[in-house]
Amino acid sequence: MKNKMKKQKTNTKKRAIIIISILAGLFLFGLFLPDTEQTETNIEGEEIIEEFQRNDIQACYAAQEFVKDYLTNPRSADFENCYDVNIIYLEDSYFVHSFVESKNSYGVYGKTVYSVELKDNMDDSWTLKDIEIF
Phi/psi zone of residue 124: left (φ > 0), alpha (ψ -120 to 50 degrees), beta? Predict the structure, then answer.
């Protein structure tokens, strides 16, 4: 009876060690896999932003300019980084949804959420189609 219990404990320990070893091996294997994200670089080694990303970023900056017109204190505006903003392109319109922190009329910082729909005029200008400030 004692030997049988010892064997069960030993088998359980062996299984646990094997499982932990496999998990650790998979983790280490994942560390050494090459990054699968493909990016192009120019001569200076800087990443080239694809055209659609460039337009998204420009749409974000244009939206920020439109939002500033609705703020009490636009100089205090601290917008979310455009690379982190939710931007959707659909049927020739860009939809930008983000937030800005700025001073209100009492001089206190607050967060304002906004959604902007705009159109690229293809001449470095943008047309505001709709704006919602929450």
Answer: left
Q: What is the pLDDT of residues 7-46, one digit of tens each?
A: 666 677 888 888 888 877 776 666 665 554 444 555 555 5
Report pLDDT digits (tens) over 51-90. 556 789 999 999 999 999 999 999 999 999 999 999 999 9
In a domain, 17, yes or no: no
Number of domains making up the chain: 1
Q: What range defines the domain where residue 71 resides?
A: 51-133
Does 7 fall in a domain? no
In order of 5, 8, 9, 31, 62, the CA distances from 2 in angstroms are 5, 10, 11, 44, 77
Sheet strands (E) in the chain: 78-79, 86-90, 93-103, 109-120, 126-133
In a domain, 37, yes or no: no
